[in-house]
């Protein structure tokens, strides 16, 4: 639009008619908002003056639109004009009319929020800072002016606090002076302003501000309201600056505790503010508050029941379950006083206690001894909002117990879970009383506690089912119950049914089933869906086994079936309900099918119909898998052919999850009903299966091969099916076996496939063997095979030979030995495969009948090729597993006599010991044979200069220790005092290998001795220290109870290993340049990885705050190898200990920002570029974890980091990718 038209709009804006002015202002807003709008200097002047004039319009609608015009205007006019407008607005704020002050304040806030240029921001700050100080401290300024100035300053500080460094001292002085004024609104806004300012204050100014506030609090004869304001200020400081406030806790915490205990009975707000400040300290300064935690805990427990105006004479220890009607009226007769605000103190105490629980996992056992009984007692709190906070605090206690004890199978008398178990009776008794309250909110909270209790401590409510069933029944049947209450009650019921023995519910089935089935028919879909899930669990409770039992489930079968069928046939309902109905019906048929034979012809076609619907297809396919897996062999004849046909077509669908579930369902159907499925259907399935076998999706491949095995092993499988498998599946299997990715379930499935194929329809063993051996030949396109592919082929050859019988196996072994004997054969790949095949066959079958096989294998130790020597070592060890009495003495004799071959022979011995120690039979075979001779040999090699030899020796010793712990542990303990560092290290690593996940007889022998080995973390030699760290890490992962008692002393020593030690850094002179070598890198990496493991298994022993600063922050700025585990630790801490991370969030930003902005050198090789890419993604994962912490948006630095990431296209793409992982 031309300037002329704009001028016309401006003229209308000054008209007398307010509607004209409104429409003209609206037109101007539209014009200013257009991207192409530009104004010359003259028009800028007119625009700014008219908009400022409109701000004072008598019509509120017009002035409101004028404020909106400022948003685009500030971006479209020059900086000088913005400064002029800001100056005029401040003049109106400080000296203008009272009625215009509100709109002027809004306008100034709008301008400050729209400034995007740093140069303009700095010019405006120079202009506005003196004006704001004048508005706040100027003599004669009204309360309204002060409040508006403080509001604007708060916004300015929040956005530009870092740019106002030179004015910080003056601003701080001005604001602190306002904490003592009489006007409460000014004091309150001053607190908010100082909090915004403190995030960008230097440490010195922060110390000065804190000192001023503390000094004021120490004075006597101060007005109570001034004390309250300054206590609020202390809390606001810690919330804003986090861990930086830590050094000042020594002055503030005792002062707050003192005020809290000495306040007058009527000064509830003082106690509330003190407790709120202490809560903030616990969450934001967890490291520095440690020494005061016990005092704060005692304080919170005292004030949790602070109620001076009410005397509660209830006896909590008596269970009045019979007096339900009396209890119903309890809440109506409670004491009530609108002026009583003591509930605020109790609420603050509950939240403060919650902060201790969340931030101090190491105090959990203390919490159960001191806080838990008090919390249970306070479930009877008369103020509902406070009761919810008490409930939430108790839920936090339960959750923290779950986090800390996750993965721990055993727990002693000091364990939080053991202590919780002792309180279950009291908890249930108190919760039952809450379930009889009238308040819906109270009942919901009570069920929330029960849900968390069952999750943390399964099977803990077996003795209390009767009383809890009554509570559930009432919650579901009561007409006043809300949907939310019903969902909570149903969810709790489902969790209880899953986690307890079915027999405990049998006496209460009648009371339980009726309300649950009524809930199935509820109109609200979430209630109905949850009720259907509960029904699914109820089915298992009614008939836990298919053997005859004392409980008669038959009266309930038809009732449950009818209720679920009504939901199943209804098309007009939510998808969640449809899916739950399908799943539940499949459970009913699989468990009660023998009692529903007349109903099946009506029900099964409905499930088939749901398979045809894309929305419910996946759930319906899973349903048929459940039915087919039932031991009842439910009659599916009416739908079987159609189901198999439908499922076969699903194998072509793009939906991966559907294909996976379909393979599992087909497998279950073929196992159960294979004799009723035609061979033509088998062939069609085989053709579809062949398309799914690829290393692109190994999980899918494993499922497809499993199904193929089922097809071939079926008694009805005819020759045509075997032929189809050979033509379609075998070529794909031969391609798959060459893959370097093949491993795990897919490899095991492939082995079973070859085993099944050799028996299927007279398939030729020789053809299969030849195809396998031929697949190992290098191809012109891809070259030689990977090591993993050759191992895969060898394992399949071994399985094939064993399946074919002794004669075929023997001829194959002779053929393989012939390849090794052939001196003229220079094909190393062929010899490599032959050795691995012999090893795999020898492990599974005794090959001692083949004369001199051991000598033929050991001759390959002379080969010039490393892979052949390694394969020969592997083969020799594995054939010894097949016949210990013959081959083990040979290996030991060779170790004694063949010095040059010792490393390879030790590897062979390691294979023997590793295989034999993995099961009881193998241990018994080895126990009485050659242990002493093996130990003598191994101990002789402890001091070897080669690390590879020492590692093999340590692994052998560790595995033997599993078999003979009473002899080995003392022998290893003696070697921890050896003068040779390598011997000490080998002894510790041996202990590491002896700590396995499964329970072993070594555990009770190692428990009292393990400190001897782990305390070598103080050793002078770095190799020994690293060995101790690795052993500690393994113990923490596999058997945390072994080390829990040592951790208080060990953790400090472990943290010390994460520090860069200059004495371990050396410079190597390489002539033209010098290279720096850090010998401490490996131990630092191991130490951080150990901490990562401890966070999983021993969280209750770790103080996260003491580790984060300075150790983790230092690690985040370290070498690539150290940064990676540090990123994992940070993500884990953000999830498990968010309060500790939140306290130091600002200091984490800098090292993370440097990492994501790091660019490799221009001449960097691809490996360095890839490593850097991995490191950036790892850092972004940590940042994503940090962003999920509630309260993280309080950190200005972290918010700026997120903004930088999202504004960079490259980083934003990676960040979004890791966020969705």
From TrEMBL:
<comment type="similarity">
    <text>Belongs to the CAND family.</text>
</comment>
<dbReference type="Pfam" id="PF08623">
    <property type="entry name" value="TIP120"/>
</dbReference>
<dbReference type="InterPro" id="IPR013932">
    <property type="entry name" value="TATA-bd_TIP120"/>
</dbReference>
<feature type="region of interest" description="Disordered">
    <location>
        <begin position="310"/>
        <end position="339"/>
    </location>
</feature>
<keyword id="KW-0677">Repeat</keyword>
<dbReference type="InterPro" id="IPR016024">
    <property type="entry name" value="ARM-type_fold"/>
</dbReference>
<dbReference type="Pfam" id="PF25782">
    <property type="entry name" value="TPR_CAND1"/>
</dbReference>
<dbReference type="GO" id="GO:0010265">
    <property type="term" value="P:SCF complex assembly"/>
</dbReference>
<keyword id="KW-0833">Ubl conjugation pathway</keyword>
<feature type="compositionally biased region" description="Acidic residues">
    <location>
        <begin position="313"/>
        <end position="339"/>
    </location>
</feature>
<dbReference type="InterPro" id="IPR039852">
    <property type="entry name" value="CAND1/CAND2"/>
</dbReference>
<protein>
    <recommendedName>
        <fullName>Cullin-associated NEDD8-dissociated protein 1</fullName>
    </recommendedName>
</protein>
<dbReference type="InterPro" id="IPR011989">
    <property type="entry name" value="ARM-like"/>
</dbReference>
<feature type="domain" description="TATA-binding protein interacting (TIP20)">
    <location>
        <begin position="1042"/>
        <end position="1203"/>
    </location>
</feature>
């Amino acid at each position: 639009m031309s300037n002329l038209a704009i001028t016309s709009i401006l003229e209308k804006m000054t008209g007398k008619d307010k509607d004209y002015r409104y429409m003209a202002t609206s037109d101007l807003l539209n014009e200013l908002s257009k991207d192409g709008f530009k104004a010359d200097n003259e028009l800028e002047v007119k625009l700014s003056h008219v908009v400022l004039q409109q701000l004072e319009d008598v019509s509120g609608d017009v002035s409101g639109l004028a404020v909106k015009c400022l948003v685009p205007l500030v971006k479209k006019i020059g900086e000088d004009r913005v400064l002029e407008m800001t100056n005029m607005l401040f003049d109106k704020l400080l000296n203008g009319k009272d009625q215009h002050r509100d709109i002027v304040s809004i306008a100034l806030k709008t301008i400050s929020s729209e400034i995007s240029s740093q140069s303009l921001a700095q010019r405006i700050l120079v202009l506005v800072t003196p004006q704001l100080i004048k508005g706040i401290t100027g003599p004669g300024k009204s309360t309204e002016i002060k409040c508006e100035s403080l509001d604007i300053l708060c916004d300015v500080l929040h956005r530009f606090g870092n740019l106002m460094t030179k004015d910080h001292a003056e601003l701080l002085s001005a604001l602190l002076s306002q904490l003592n004024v009489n006007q409460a609104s000014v004091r309150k806004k001053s607190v908010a302003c100082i909090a915004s300012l403190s995030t960008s204050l230097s440490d010195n100014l922060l110390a000065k501000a804190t000192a001023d506030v503390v000094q004021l609090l120490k004075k006597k004869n101060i007005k109570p309201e001034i004390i309250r304001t300054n206590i609020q200020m202390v809390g606001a400081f810690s919330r804003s600056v986090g861990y930086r406030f830590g050094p000042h806790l020594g002055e503030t915490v005792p002062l707050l505790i003192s005020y809290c205990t000495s306040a007058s009975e009527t000064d509830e707000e003082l106690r509330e503010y003190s407790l709120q400040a202490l809560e903030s300290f616990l969450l934001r300064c967890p490291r520095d508050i440690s020494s005061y935690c016990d005092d704060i805990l005692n304080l919170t427990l005292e004030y949790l029941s602070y109620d001076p105006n009410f005397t509660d004479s209830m006896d909590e220890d008596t269970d009045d379950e019979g007096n339900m009607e009396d209890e119903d009226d309890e809440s109506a007769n409670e004491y009530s006083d609108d002026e009583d605000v003591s509930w605020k103190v109790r609420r603050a105490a509950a939240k403060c206690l919650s902060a201790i629980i969340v931030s101090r996992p190491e105090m959990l056992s203390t919490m159960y001894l001191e806080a838990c009984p008090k919390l249970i007692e306070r479930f009877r709190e008369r103020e509902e909002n406070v009761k919810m906070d008490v409930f939430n605090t108790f839920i936090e206690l339960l959750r923290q117990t779950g986090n800390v004890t996750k993965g721990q199978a055993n727990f002693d008398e000091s364990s939080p879970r053991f202590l919780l178990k002792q309180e279950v009776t009291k908890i249930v008794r108190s919760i039952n009383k809450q379930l009889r309250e009238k308040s819906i909110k109270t009942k919901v909270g009570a069920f929330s506690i029960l849900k968390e209790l069952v999750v943390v401590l399964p099977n803990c409510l077996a003795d209390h089912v009767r009383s809890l069933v009554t509570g559930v029944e009432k919650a579901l049947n009561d007409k006043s119950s809300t949907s939310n209450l019903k969902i909570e009650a149903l969810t709790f019921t489902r969790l209880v049914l899953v986690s307890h023995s079915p027999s405990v519910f049998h006496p209460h089935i009648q009371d339980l089933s009726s309300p649950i089935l009524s809930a199935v028919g509820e109109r609200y879909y979430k209630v109905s869906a949850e009720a259907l899930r509960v029904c699914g669990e109820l089915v298992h409770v009614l008939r836990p086994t298919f053997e005859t039992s004392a409980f008669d489930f038959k009266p309930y079968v038809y009732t449950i079936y009818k209720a679920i069928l009504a939901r199943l046939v209804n098309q007009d309902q939510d998808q969640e309900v449809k899916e739950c109905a399908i799943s539940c019906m499949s459970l009913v048929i699989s468990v009660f099918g023998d009692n529903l034979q007349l109903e099946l012809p009506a029900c099964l076609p409905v499930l088939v119909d749901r398979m045809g619907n894309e929305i419910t297809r996946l759930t319906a396919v899973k349903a048929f898998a459940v039915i087919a897996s039932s031991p009842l062999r439910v009659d599916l004849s009416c739908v079987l052919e159609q189901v198999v046909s439908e499922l076969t077509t699903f194998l072509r669908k793009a939906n991966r999850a559907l294909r996976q579930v379909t393979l599992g369902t087909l497998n279950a159907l073929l196992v159960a009903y294979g004799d009723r499925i035609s061979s033509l259907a088998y062939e069609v399935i085989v053709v579809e299966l062949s398309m799914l076998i690829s290393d692109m999706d190994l999980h899918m491949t494993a499922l497809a091969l499993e199904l193929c095995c089922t097809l071939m092993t079926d008694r009805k499988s005819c020759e045509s099916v075997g032929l189809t498998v050979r033509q379609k599946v075998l070529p794909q299997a031969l391609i798959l076996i060459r893959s370097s990715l093949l491993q795990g379930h897919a490899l095991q499935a492939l082995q079973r496939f070859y085993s099944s194929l050799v028996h299927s329809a007279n398939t030729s063993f020789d053809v299969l063997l030849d195809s396998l051996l031929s697949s190992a030949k290098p191809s012109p396109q891809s070259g030689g095979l990977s090591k993993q592919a050759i191992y895969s082929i060898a394992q399949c050859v071994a399985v094939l030979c064993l399946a074919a019988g002794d004669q075929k196996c023997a001829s194959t072994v002779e053929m393989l030995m012939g390849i090794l004997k052939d001196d003229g054969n220079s094909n190393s790949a062929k010899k490599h495969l032959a050795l691995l095949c012999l090893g795999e066959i020898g492990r599974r079958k005794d090959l001692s009948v083949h004369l001199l096989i051991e000598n033929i294998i050991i001759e390959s130790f002379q080969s010039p090729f490393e892979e052949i020597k390694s394969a020969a070592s592997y083969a020799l060890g594995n054939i010894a597993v097949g016949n210990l009495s013959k081959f083990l003495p040979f290996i030991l004799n060779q170790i004694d006599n063949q010095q040059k071959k010792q490393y390879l022979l030790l590897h062979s011995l390691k294979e023997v010991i590793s295989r034999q120690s993995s099961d009881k039979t193998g241990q018994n075979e080895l126990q009485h044979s050659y242990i002493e001779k093996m130990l003598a040999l191994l101990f002789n090699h402890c001091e070897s200069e080669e690390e590879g030899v020492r590692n093999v020796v340590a692994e052998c010793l560790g595995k033997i220790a599993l078999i003979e712990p009473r002899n080995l542990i003392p022998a290893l303990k003696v070697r921890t005092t050896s003068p040779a560092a390598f011997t000490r290290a080998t002894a510790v690593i041996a202990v590491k290998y002896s700590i396995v996940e499964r329970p072993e007889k070594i555990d009770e022998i190692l428990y009292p001795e393990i400190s001897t080995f782990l305390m070598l973390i103080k050793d002078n030699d770095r190799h020994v220290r690293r060995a101790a760290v690795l052993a500690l890490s393994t113990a923490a992962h596999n058997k945390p109870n072994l080390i829990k008692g040592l951790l208080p002393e060990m953790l400090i020593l472990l943290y010390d290993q994460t520090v860069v030690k200059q004495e371990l850094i050396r410079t190597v002179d390489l002539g033209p340049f010098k290279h720096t070598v850090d010998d401490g890198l490996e131990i630092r990496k191991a130490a951080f990885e150990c901490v990562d493991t401890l966070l999983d298994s021993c969280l209750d022993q770790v103080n996260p705050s003491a580790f984060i600063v300075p150790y983790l922050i230092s690690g985040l700025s370290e070498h690539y190898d150290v940064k990676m585990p540090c990123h994992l630790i940070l993500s884990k801490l953000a999830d498990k200990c968010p309060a500790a991370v939140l306290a130091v969030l600002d200091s984490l930003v800098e090292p993370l920002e440097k990492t994501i902005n790091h660019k490799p050198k221009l001449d960097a090789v691809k490996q360095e570029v890839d490593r850097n890419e991995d490191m950036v993604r790892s850092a972004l994962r940590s940042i994503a974890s940090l962003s999920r912490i509630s309260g993280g948006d309080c950190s200005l630095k972290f918010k700026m980091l997120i903004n930088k990431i999202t504004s960079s296209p490259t980083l934003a793409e990676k960040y979004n990718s890791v966020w969705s992982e």
